[in-house]
Amino acid sequence: MTASIEIIPAGRLPRLDDRPLEKCIGLVILATDHTTEADFRRMVASDRIGVYVSRIHYANPVTPENLLKMQPSLTQGAGLILPDEALDVVMYSCTSASVVIGDGKIEAAIHAAKPGACVVTPTAAAVRALKVLGARQISVLTPYTIETSRPMADYFTRLGFAIDCFTCLGLSDDREMARIALDEIAAFARQALAPQSDALFISCTAVRAAQVAARIEAETGKPVVTSNLATAWACLRLCGDDQARPELGQLMTRPYGEG
């Protein structure tokens, strides 16, 4: 027989904070993405900054045509992150798609759902990061095929960068890109960096390059920017976090306003 337990109402409603966390970052990522959430959990999330994720449909292989197919999903994907609540930053986590869709179109699509948010793309964040680091001559390493790499080469050239060396690994499945061994990333990075370059950019949010960026810098003596390192840095700075974290690489010691 169950005893009768009196349940007593508290007598008042609890006081509510404006937000559970001071700053809110939304990530719109690919359904196949293994890397972005882990990198942002490691580099960005804290007791002050919350990271919230929405996944949108994506089907391999990584080609300009398949990348472009994500554009119609961006508004809905952003809108599913804490619906009807404001976000401080929304980041779309695909570098090659940012090239083929365009930074401006991505920003407009996300603003349709989250009009007050700052919008970050890996491409725009990488450009700002390279400028902050004083890089004008760069080397680029991508995991893509030549077909998918070509628009990226054109993107950086169009924005005024001189590309000394552009190396691609020939992969077409972003799940394989996420499995490239860390030692292999570092080895290919050393080979891809031309001696005269000011910095190396390693593309693709699937590639775990942010984990070895500082190591590559120590081995080469040159700044390294990766897709996820650049977006993490941009999101942190836009949320007012200016803490220098040299263990993550030179970029994480720099304010957002330089360059």
TrEMBL record:
Pfam families membership: Amdase
Protein name per Swiss-Prot or TrEMBL: Ectoine utilization protein EutA
Species, as recorded: Rhizobium lentis
